[in-house]
Design brief:
This protein is mainly α. Helices cover about 40% and strands about 5% of the residues. Helix 2 packs across helix 3.
């Protein structure tokens, strides 16, 4: 489960507020190409403590040209994404 790294609820509480509710949510079904790309990333970067879920997120974010992630997980930063907050 996950990368084994968690900051817990404390940073969320310290931020002062919940993120605003999105007006729309994009759903994306994973086809075989996303699965294969995520698996390849996981295997190629075995020196990193990433989960398959992390790698899938990174592949989808790259595909959608997203550069920022709302996360407390440093894996996103190490993968080249900007962390929010």
């Amino acid at each position: 489960m996950g990368s084994g790294f968690s900051l817990g609820i404390k940073p969320s509480r310290e931020s002062g507020a919940l993120p605003s509710r999105p007006t729309s949510i994009a759903k994306k079904r994973h086809d075989e190409s996303y699965f294969a790309a995520a698996w390849k990333l996981l295997v190629q970067r075995s020196d990193k403590r990433r989960s398959f879920a992390d790698c899938t997120s990174f592949v989808l974010m790259e595909n959608r040209d997203l550069r920022k992630a709302l996360t407390f997980d440093r894996n996103s930063l190490e993968a080249g994404f900007a962390m929010i907050p």
